[in-house]
Design a protein that fits this description.
Elements: H1 3-10, E1 20-22, E2 30-31, E3 38-48, H2 59-76, E4 80-90, H3 96-112, E5 116-124, E6 130-140, E7 155-159, H4 169-172, H5 177-186, E8 189-195, H6 199-202, E9 216-220, H7 228-235, H8 243-249, E10 255-260, H9 262-275, E11 281-288, E12 292-297, E13 300-303
The structure holds magnesium ion.
Magnesium ion is lined by residues 73, 76, 193-194, 196.
């Protein structure tokens, strides 16, 4: 199958939305510019066979994951995704049925969130499949949730549950788009990020301040929401990782981690529970003046165990 034949098979799987003037098929897609009262968000991400998915992972779930990771970043900014382009790095003689199924998984999630798929590119990548997505989004002007802005005394919140993502969550997670938008509209969030490298890896990103000083955090061990999969994995012989460690250091949770002033903590928790009763929200600790991340347990206050998922190890 030639590249042109493959593209001809994939093109019908692309989607359009209002705001797309010309979709795939020309040298560029043509989109209407975002409204004056919006800021534009722009994000790219890539997943690679053998690292983010396996050769035998169901192809629909591979495509879904490729887009969901980008959507999670738009969610972390409080934005709304609008349009995406897809780059495939294909091994020699790719299976068109598999590639179409990947596109179907991607398209289904795109349609659910109103994302137009406005173009793609294929290239060869000899050993393994690679999927890269560039995604546009919008957020009301000045309302993007940023990583900087935490203050000492802030409450730290995390959505959902943490750890053991490798048992399936990393493929099937729901990007927290509605929740991110709701937080942006609330207007009281000091700093936010989506947890892709574990709370241990990502919380430090919320500790840098605009004046260059570094804050710390104190987490309450008993408040960490541990996913059942993290407990199940710990029961496997040879796992050697207690569930609390898995919850704090495993990658690919794709939950929202954010800080608000202590006085806003209860209203945010109550508002969230009323608006999103199906999505847990946990207050897991507070921002402190003392640098470093500390964990308070029955054995007192200890430095954070382990680190988050590190790329390029
Ligand atoms: Mg992110």
């Amino acid at each position: 199958m030639t590249e042109f034949e493959l593209i001809a098979r994939l093109k019908p799987l692309l989607t359009t939305q209002p705001g797309v003037v010309h979709g795939a098929g020309d040298d560029c897609a043509v989109l209407t510019a975002p409204a004056a009262e919006c800021d534009q968000l722009f994000k790219t991400d890539a997943i690679v066979e053998g690292i983010h998915f396996l050769p035998d992972t169901e192809p629909e779930r591979i495509g879904r994951k490729a887009l969901a990771r980008c959507l999670s970043d738009i969610a972390a900014m409080g934005g709304t995704p609008t349009a995406a382009v897809i780059t495939l790095g294909l091994p020699a003689s790719p299976d068109p049925v598999r590639i179409e199924a990947i596109y179907r998984g991607l398209r289904d999630l795109a349609e659910r969130h109103g994302v137009a798929l406005v173009g793609g590119e294929t290239t060869t990548n000899p050993d393994r499949l690679l999927i890269s997505i560039a995604l546009l989004g919008t957020v009301p002007k000045g309302r993007a949730l940023l990583r900087t802005g935490s203050r000492p005394g802030d409450a730290i919140f995390v959505s959902g549950e943490l750890g053991g993502s490798i048992l399936g969550h990393h493929l099937d997670f729901e990007p927290r788009l509605e929740q991110g938008r709701w937080l942006s509209e609330l207007g009281c969030v000091h700093a936010a990020i989506d947890v892709s490298d574990g709370v241990a890896g990502d919380l430090p990103h919320l500790l840098a301040t605009t004046d260059g000083s570094v804050l710390g955090a104190e987490l309450l061990k008993s408040a960490i929401p541990i996913r059942r999969a993290a407990r199940e994995a710990a029961r496997n012989p040879g796992s050697g990782k207690p569930p609390i460690v898995a919850a704090l250091t495993d990658g690919e949770d794709f939950e929202l981690l954010f800080t608000v002033a202590a006085r806003d903590a209860v209203p945010v928790l109550d508002g969230w529970k009323a608006r999103f009763p199906e999505v847990p929200l946990s207050c897991i600790g507070k921002i402190t003046d003392r640098p470093g991340v500390w964990l308070r347990g029955e054995d007192g206050l200890k430095p954070m165990i382990g680190k988050g998922y590190e790329h390029f190890r």
